[in-house]
Design goal:
Structural class: alpha/beta
Number of strands: 13
Shape: globular
Distance between the termini: 58 Å
Length: 248
Protein backbone atom coordinates (compact mmCIF):
# COMPACT_ATOMS: atom_id res chain seq x y z
CA UNK A 1 0.00 0.00 0.00
CA UNK A 2 1.33 3.40 -1.01
CA UNK A 3 0.41 6.17 1.43
CA UNK A 4 0.77 9.90 0.84
CA UNK A 5 0.61 12.17 3.89
CA UNK A 6 -0.01 15.87 3.24
CA UNK A 7 2.04 18.06 5.57
CA UNK A 8 1.31 21.71 6.34
CA UNK A 9 4.15 23.91 7.59
CA UNK A 10 2.46 26.03 10.29
CA UNK A 11 3.46 28.38 13.11
CA UNK A 12 3.87 26.90 16.58
CA UNK A 13 0.81 27.69 18.68
CA UNK A 14 3.04 29.46 21.23
CA UNK A 15 4.40 31.90 18.61
CA UNK A 16 3.53 35.58 18.81
CA UNK A 17 1.66 36.50 15.62
CA UNK A 18 2.13 39.78 13.77
CA UNK A 19 1.24 41.10 10.33
CA UNK A 20 3.04 43.37 7.86
CA UNK A 21 2.29 45.46 4.75
CA UNK A 22 -0.84 47.04 6.15
CA UNK A 23 -1.95 43.80 7.85
CA UNK A 24 -2.15 41.97 4.51
CA UNK A 25 0.72 39.51 5.10
CA UNK A 26 1.80 37.24 7.94
CA UNK A 27 5.13 38.25 9.50
CA UNK A 28 7.30 35.12 9.75
CA UNK A 29 10.23 36.81 11.51
CA UNK A 30 11.13 34.99 14.72
CA UNK A 31 8.31 32.45 14.31
CA UNK A 32 8.98 28.74 14.89
CA UNK A 33 7.25 26.43 12.41
CA UNK A 34 6.08 22.85 13.06
CA UNK A 35 4.14 20.01 11.44
CA UNK A 36 0.44 20.84 11.53
CA UNK A 37 -1.01 18.86 14.50
CA UNK A 38 -3.80 17.18 12.49
CA UNK A 39 -1.22 16.15 9.89
CA UNK A 40 1.02 14.73 12.59
CA UNK A 41 -1.80 12.46 13.78
CA UNK A 42 -2.16 11.25 10.19
CA UNK A 43 1.59 10.75 9.78
CA UNK A 44 1.76 8.68 12.95
CA UNK A 45 -1.09 6.48 11.71
CA UNK A 46 0.68 6.07 8.36
CA UNK A 47 3.86 4.97 10.14
CA UNK A 48 1.76 2.37 11.99
CA UNK A 49 0.58 1.02 8.60
CA UNK A 50 4.23 0.92 7.51
CA UNK A 51 5.28 -1.08 10.56
CA UNK A 52 2.27 -3.42 10.65
CA UNK A 53 1.45 -3.90 6.96
CA UNK A 54 4.61 -2.96 5.06
CA UNK A 55 3.18 0.24 3.56
CA UNK A 56 5.43 2.87 2.04
CA UNK A 57 4.96 6.42 3.32
CA UNK A 58 5.63 9.59 1.36
CA UNK A 59 5.07 13.08 2.78
CA UNK A 60 4.28 16.10 0.61
CA UNK A 61 4.16 19.84 1.17
CA UNK A 62 3.30 22.78 -1.06
CA UNK A 63 5.70 25.52 -0.02
CA UNK A 64 9.09 27.14 -0.24
CA UNK A 65 12.54 25.96 0.88
CA UNK A 66 11.76 26.98 4.47
CA UNK A 67 9.34 24.03 4.69
CA UNK A 68 12.12 21.48 4.14
CA UNK A 69 13.02 21.42 7.84
CA UNK A 70 9.45 20.32 8.59
CA UNK A 71 9.62 17.65 5.88
CA UNK A 72 12.95 16.42 7.28
CA UNK A 73 11.30 16.06 10.67
CA UNK A 74 8.59 13.92 9.06
CA UNK A 75 11.32 11.78 7.49
CA UNK A 76 13.02 11.47 10.88
CA UNK A 77 9.74 10.29 12.39
CA UNK A 78 9.65 7.45 9.86
CA UNK A 79 8.42 8.54 6.41
CA UNK A 80 10.32 6.94 3.51
CA UNK A 81 10.56 9.92 1.20
CA UNK A 82 9.40 13.52 0.85
CA UNK A 83 8.10 15.75 -1.93
CA UNK A 84 8.03 19.54 -1.92
CA UNK A 85 6.01 21.34 -4.56
CA UNK A 86 7.99 24.54 -5.06
CA UNK A 87 5.19 27.10 -4.79
CA UNK A 88 3.73 29.56 -2.32
CA UNK A 89 0.45 28.10 -0.96
CA UNK A 90 -1.74 31.02 -2.01
CA UNK A 91 -5.15 29.48 -1.31
CA UNK A 92 -6.90 26.15 -0.72
CA UNK A 93 -7.76 25.43 -4.35
CA UNK A 94 -4.23 26.12 -5.53
CA UNK A 95 -2.80 23.76 -2.89
CA UNK A 96 -5.37 21.05 -3.68
CA UNK A 97 -4.54 21.31 -7.39
CA UNK A 98 -0.83 20.75 -6.71
CA UNK A 99 -1.50 17.84 -4.36
CA UNK A 100 -3.91 16.21 -6.82
CA UNK A 101 -1.19 16.21 -9.47
CA UNK A 102 1.19 14.46 -7.05
CA UNK A 103 -1.51 11.89 -6.23
CA UNK A 104 -2.27 11.15 -9.88
CA UNK A 105 1.39 10.88 -10.84
CA UNK A 106 2.34 8.73 -7.84
CA UNK A 107 -0.62 6.36 -7.91
CA UNK A 108 -1.15 6.43 -4.14
CA UNK A 109 -3.69 4.11 -2.54
CA UNK A 110 -4.36 6.14 0.59
CA UNK A 111 -3.98 9.89 0.99
CA UNK A 112 -4.03 11.22 4.55
CA UNK A 113 -4.50 14.94 5.10
CA UNK A 114 -5.28 16.85 8.26
CA UNK A 115 -8.89 17.95 8.70
CA UNK A 116 -7.65 21.54 8.79
CA UNK A 117 -4.44 23.48 9.37
CA UNK A 118 -4.11 25.57 12.48
CA UNK A 119 -2.96 28.68 10.61
CA UNK A 120 -5.99 29.38 8.39
CA UNK A 121 -8.42 26.65 9.56
CA UNK A 122 -10.10 26.58 6.15
CA UNK A 123 -10.70 22.82 6.10
CA UNK A 124 -11.11 22.93 2.30
CA UNK A 125 -8.04 21.21 0.87
CA UNK A 126 -8.76 17.50 1.60
CA UNK A 127 -12.22 17.55 0.02
CA UNK A 128 -11.09 19.48 -3.05
CA UNK A 129 -8.08 17.17 -3.39
CA UNK A 130 -10.37 14.12 -3.38
CA UNK A 131 -12.63 15.69 -5.99
CA UNK A 132 -9.74 16.63 -8.29
CA UNK A 133 -8.12 13.20 -7.94
CA UNK A 134 -11.40 11.29 -8.31
CA UNK A 135 -10.97 9.48 -4.96
CA UNK A 136 -13.58 8.68 -2.34
CA UNK A 137 -13.39 10.98 0.70
CA UNK A 138 -13.97 10.66 4.44
CA UNK A 139 -13.95 13.89 6.46
CA UNK A 140 -13.32 14.21 10.20
CA UNK A 141 -11.82 10.71 10.27
CA UNK A 142 -10.89 9.41 13.74
CA UNK A 143 -10.26 5.75 12.90
CA UNK A 144 -9.27 3.77 9.83
CA UNK A 145 -8.64 0.09 9.20
CA UNK A 146 -7.55 -1.36 5.86
CA UNK A 147 -7.97 -4.98 4.78
CA UNK A 148 -6.70 -5.40 1.24
CA UNK A 149 -8.66 -2.81 -0.71
CA UNK A 150 -11.52 -2.70 1.80
CA UNK A 151 -11.59 0.17 4.27
CA UNK A 152 -13.57 0.74 7.45
CA UNK A 153 -13.47 4.33 8.66
CA UNK A 154 -15.07 6.15 11.57
CA UNK A 155 -15.75 9.86 11.44
CA UNK A 156 -17.13 12.39 13.88
CA UNK A 157 -20.57 13.81 13.15
CA UNK A 158 -22.80 16.16 15.13
CA UNK A 159 -23.77 14.33 18.28
CA UNK A 160 -21.84 11.12 17.66
CA UNK A 161 -19.77 8.95 15.32
CA UNK A 162 -20.46 7.31 11.98
CA UNK A 163 -18.85 4.11 10.69
CA UNK A 164 -18.35 3.88 6.93
CA UNK A 165 -17.28 1.12 4.55
CA UNK A 166 -15.41 2.10 1.38
CA UNK A 167 -12.51 1.01 -0.80
CA UNK A 168 -9.10 2.22 -1.84
CA UNK A 169 -8.08 4.56 -3.35
CA UNK A 170 -9.22 6.97 -0.68
CA UNK A 171 -8.57 10.42 0.76
CA UNK A 172 -9.21 11.01 4.46
CA UNK A 173 -9.17 14.24 6.44
CA UNK A 174 -7.87 13.05 9.79
CA UNK A 175 -7.74 14.48 13.27
CA UNK A 176 -7.04 13.44 16.84
CA UNK A 177 -8.41 9.93 17.26
CA UNK A 178 -6.48 8.42 14.37
CA UNK A 179 -3.90 8.24 17.13
CA UNK A 180 -3.77 9.89 20.53
CA UNK A 181 -1.24 12.51 21.59
CA UNK A 182 0.63 9.94 23.66
CA UNK A 183 1.23 7.92 20.46
CA UNK A 184 2.96 10.75 18.56
CA UNK A 185 6.55 9.98 17.58
CA UNK A 186 9.53 12.07 18.65
CA UNK A 187 12.48 11.80 16.24
CA UNK A 188 15.45 9.99 17.79
CA UNK A 189 19.08 10.44 16.81
CA UNK A 190 19.03 7.45 14.46
CA UNK A 191 15.93 8.78 12.71
CA UNK A 192 17.47 12.25 12.37
CA UNK A 193 20.63 10.81 10.82
CA UNK A 194 18.66 8.61 8.43
CA UNK A 195 16.47 11.54 7.39
CA UNK A 196 19.53 13.28 5.95
CA UNK A 197 19.96 10.55 3.36
CA UNK A 198 16.30 10.01 2.43
CA UNK A 199 15.03 11.40 -0.86
CA UNK A 200 13.48 14.87 -0.89
CA UNK A 201 12.14 15.56 -4.37
CA UNK A 202 11.35 19.11 -5.48
CA UNK A 203 8.61 19.48 -8.10
CA UNK A 204 7.59 22.59 -9.98
CA UNK A 205 3.90 23.51 -9.65
CA UNK A 206 1.27 22.86 -12.29
CA UNK A 207 -0.72 25.77 -13.66
CA UNK A 208 -3.53 26.77 -11.31
CA UNK A 209 -5.11 30.10 -10.53
CA UNK A 210 -5.69 31.15 -6.94
CA UNK A 211 -9.40 31.84 -6.53
CA UNK A 212 -9.23 33.83 -3.28
CA UNK A 213 -6.81 36.21 -1.61
CA UNK A 214 -6.37 37.66 1.86
CA UNK A 215 -7.52 41.27 1.96
CA UNK A 216 -6.58 41.97 5.56
CA UNK A 217 -5.71 40.17 8.80
CA UNK A 218 -6.94 41.35 12.18
CA UNK A 219 -6.05 40.14 15.65
CA UNK A 220 -8.82 39.41 18.15
CA UNK A 221 -9.62 42.32 20.45
CA UNK A 222 -7.65 42.15 23.71
CA UNK A 223 -9.52 40.84 26.70
CA UNK A 224 -10.82 43.47 29.07
CA UNK A 225 -9.66 43.65 32.65
CA UNK A 226 -11.55 41.47 35.09
CA UNK A 227 -13.89 43.17 37.52
CA UNK A 228 -14.21 41.53 40.91
CA UNK A 229 -17.57 41.91 42.64
CA UNK A 230 -18.11 41.13 46.30
CA UNK A 231 -20.18 37.99 46.80
CA UNK A 232 -22.70 39.91 48.86
CA UNK A 233 -23.20 42.72 46.30
CA UNK A 234 -25.62 41.01 43.92
CA UNK A 235 -27.27 44.26 42.84
CA UNK A 236 -24.00 45.54 41.34
CA UNK A 237 -23.36 42.19 39.67
CA UNK A 238 -26.81 42.19 38.04
CA UNK A 239 -26.37 45.82 36.96
CA UNK A 240 -23.01 45.11 35.29
CA UNK A 241 -24.30 42.01 33.53
CA UNK A 242 -27.32 43.90 32.26
CA UNK A 243 -25.90 47.35 31.40
CA UNK A 244 -22.23 46.68 30.61
CA UNK A 245 -21.84 43.07 29.51
CA UNK A 246 -25.39 43.04 28.08
CA UNK A 247 -25.80 39.31 28.63
CA UNK A 248 -29.05 39.53 30.59
Amino acid sequence: MKILVCISHVPDTTAKINFTNGDTEFDTNGVQFVINPNDEFGLTRAIWFKEQAGATVTVVNVGGPDAEATLRKALAIGADEAIRVNATPTDGFFVAKQLAEVVKTGGYDLVIAGKESLDYNGGMVPGMLAGLAGYDFVNGCIKIDVNGSDVTAVREIDGGKETLSTKLPLVIAGQKGLVEEKDLRIPNMRGIMQARTKALTILEPVAANATTKAVKFEKPAPKQAVKLISHDNLDELVSLLHNEAKVI
